[in-house]
Amino acid sequence: MTLKAYIITRSLLALPMTIFLLSVVFIIVRILPGNPIDLILGPHATPEMKTILAQRLGLDIPIYLQYLHYIAGVFQGNLGKSMHTGIPISQEILQYFPNTVVLAVAAMFVALAIGIPLGVLASQRFSKTEDIIVRLFGATVYVIPVFWLGMILQLVFGVYLRIFPVAGIGPLPSKSLTGLYILDFLLVGDLQGFAKSISYLVMPAFTLGLIISGVFMRLTRTYMVETMRQDYTVAAVSRGLRKQTIIYKYALRNALLPLVTMIGLEIAGLLAGAVLTEVTFSWPGLGTYLVSRIGLRDYPAVQGCIVFFAVIVIVVSFIVDLTYAYLDPRVRL
Amino acid sequence: MSSRNNTHLLEVSRLNVEYLTKKGTVKALRDVTFKLDSGTALGIVGESGCGKSTLAFSIIRCIQPPGFITSGSIFFDGVDLLQLSENKMRKMRGKNISLIPQDPMTSLNPVMRVGEHFMEMIGNHEPHLDKAERKKRALDILEKLGIPSERFKDYPHQFSGGMRQRVMIGLALLLNPKLVIADEPTTSLDALVEAQILELIQKLTKELSLTLILITHNIGVVAEICNRVIVMYAGQIVEEANTLQLFDKPLHPYTEALLASVPNPIEEIKKLNWIPGSPPNLLNLPKGCSFYLRCRYAFDKCRTTEPELINLEERRVRCFLYERGE
User: Kind and range of the H or E element at B19?
Assistant: First the structure.
């Protein structure tokens, strides 16, 4: 299959998925008790005021028309305006999303940095004490609720030990160049600001990363046990190669191939975890934005966020497939 | 066998290997004892599951759990390999003793260029050589094997089965080892390529005056390449002889049956000769000789007592038929 055909197929598959997702979200936000009009106007609003607002927000027309208008809008790239602020949703998303990217990338880095070495260790000590401890650790971090871990870390390292700031994102750089504030610090040359923002990033990234690391740890272990048994690894042992060479160039490199696919699948879990982490650490990202707009029943904002998340998952898993093709010389698209 | 001081390149004595399985202990090798002189090409033949490959992997100490070497010694060049530290043993593998694996299709790292396999092996064993020197040596051996140098940068999946086995042979011979063990090197190749590969092995062992252990279930291959043969059955050596002697006059009933089972294309054959029955279950070995149930000469003693290997001048056989004084 050519790359072009591949992209087209993938996009066509993504289309019905996105429409289905949009429909579900559209229905769910409207089933939720409470409506945006009451929340905006408060308890003392008159019926006339309500009618006028409903007209202005487009909530006065039949619901199926609202649905059709919305879907049509989305496919023209128009996510609508916030019922709360009146600002276009796309603009709001682009304002908050870079902060989520910083958190997610840092968390993924932590997850891989913890998960892969522990998985390698467990596979080398298969069925021995170290293996059992690592597996127990993997299962434990997998079931810990994100917010609970976050709050414990806040309490210990933020309140008692005062090593890291309890919450927030810290100061932002003087100029916004790329939108990614961490990069901007470096581009502006503000190393002090950079160091400071890292100190704010450590706890949320570690919280989210640790939770996700369990999956990578278990997968690395399983794939490594598998690749250590393969003929090419046994042949490498019979050639008298060093243990490090065998573990990293033979077993781990081949184990990383399926792992890359799993990184792609974990993006959804990462974003879901990011929402909870952001709320716990008052991190001004898309997760915090989404949760606050759910509270306000800001229909277009909630819908917009979900569509955006869906597109991210689709795009990232596509990028991961291409990476896989790059890593495995046998797969050339 | 006449003792010739300590000049044997390889001396395996009373080697026992067991696999611990859920059903019990599988005795894969039982008291395997043999000597191998420099320059010999030794063939080890037997049916599937008789312990041939286990023996190959034992010599380079690559038996993976649940398999264990439970007792015995393997002297190579006067050193007991079973007493070496893992690090010293590692340096032996590939450098002094190397293995040509059974399946070349799966024995190369799929994510590494073929040339890198050679470079890496030289780098691991002779780290003092610089990159240019490593590459020169790698290309030298590729040339000997008839692999064009422009294929150095290709990946294993771009090679055919025969070419991959050439690569495996190249890796095995790269560091001029004293002993090369070929573990059924042609089993997974088609007949035409098999002939080419065997010819190549034969040519190179002569050219480089290597000592070879060729493990195979194909006794015809042994006749072509080896000057000495060990026949194994159910984890034991049942017969050892010079190739000519063995083909001329097999002593053990199993060897006899094995030779009779080779189809002869010259004589018109109505049906294939095969050995009735199947090898004994290594989990639960019968008392007495392990071949007696399939043996046409079996008598009472075979059922109750296990025969020892009997030395007969230049050969050995594990059978009561050749006991002296009976």
Answer: strand B10-21
Residues of A in contact with B101 (CB under 8 A): 231, 234-235, 238
CATH of the structural domain A90-327, one choice from 3.30.1130.10, 1.10.3720.10, 3.30.470.30, 1.50.10.20 = 1.10.3720.10
Q: Name which of A232, A233, A260 to mutate to probe chain B: the one with the most chain B Cβ atoms within 10 A of its Cβ.
A: A232
Whole-number percent of chain A with pLDDT over 90: 47
Question: What span, in angstroms and rounded, lies between the C-alpha atoms of A21 and A77?
Answer: 16
Q: What does DSSP assign to residue A252? A: I
CB < 8 Å & 24+ apart, contacts of A67-70: A67/A23, A67/A26, A70/A22, A70/A26, A70/A300, A70/A303
Residue B111 to residue A236, Cβ atoms within 8 A? no
Q: Give the ipTM.
A: 0.87
pTM of the model: 0.81
Contact status, residue B167 vs residue B104, Cβ threshold 8 Å: yes
3-state class (DSSP) for residue B284: coil
Q: Confidence class of residue A240 from pLDDT cuts 50, 70 and 90?
A: very high
- H or E element, residue B99: strand B97-100
Give 3-state DSSP helix, strand, coil % of chain B, rounded to 5.
35, 25, 40
The residue extents of the domains of chain B are: 10-108+159-322, 109-158
Residues in A closer than 8 angstroms to B108, CB to CB, are: 232, 235
**Residue A122, C-beta contacts closer than 8 angstroms, at least 6 positions apart:** A130, A131, A134, A135, A217, A220, A221
What sign results for the dihedral spanned by CA atoms B274, B276, B282, B285?
negative
Q: Which two tokens stand for residue A6?
A: 């591949």
d(C-alpha B219, C-alpha B184), whole Å: 11
Pick the CATH number of B10-108+159-322 from 3.30.710.10, 3.40.50.300, 3.30.565.10, 2.60.260.20: 3.40.50.300
CB contact under 8 A, B111 and A254: yes
Please write the tens of the pLDDT for every residue from B165-185: 999 999 999 998 999 999 988
| pLDDT tops 80 at residue A327 | no
